[in-house]
Amino acid sequence: MTETIDLIITANILRTAIRAQLRRGTRREIVSALIKAYAPPEARTVRRHDGEYRLPVEVIPYQRRIAFLDALNQLSDERAQGETLIAELVG
């Protein structure tokens, strides 16, 4: 059953969850670090229209997207302490 759920978590769903988290006050750098933590090591950054280089959410493997969303939901403004928090969430 989990495999079926993983397959329906699209990049659009991930983007929507990320936007909601950013609206709650989580810094972009923290979200970018979380994406990097869940992306495969060979994932490449792309240049965005604003000139910044970021990993696109599409690089997060389907089988890791539920865990990514769980970790994203655990981020909060007062707990967003950077790489230490990301390491805790990724395990």
Description of the molecule:
This protein has 91 residues and is mainly alpha-helical. It has one domain. Strands 1-2 form a two-stranded antiparallel sheet. The two termini are 23 Å apart. The mean pLDDT is 82.
List the SSEs and their pairings:
Layout: H1 2-8, H2 11-23, H3 28-38, E1 46-47, E2 53-54, H4 65-74, H5 83-90
Antiparallel strand pairs: 1-2
Helix pairs in contact: 2-4, 3-4, 3-5
Compact overview of the structure:
The chain has 91 residues and is mostly helical. It is built from 5 helices and 2 strands; from the N terminus they run αααββαα. The chain has one domain (2-82).
Order of neighbouring strands in the sheet with most strands: 1-2
Radius of gyration: 13 Å
Termini separation comes to: 23 Å
> How does the helix and strand content classify structurally?
mainly alpha
Number of domains: 1
Q: Can you count the helices? A: 5
Element-level helix/strand string: HHHEEHH
What ranges have pLDDT less than 50 throughout 5 or more consecutive residues? none
Strand percentage: under 5%
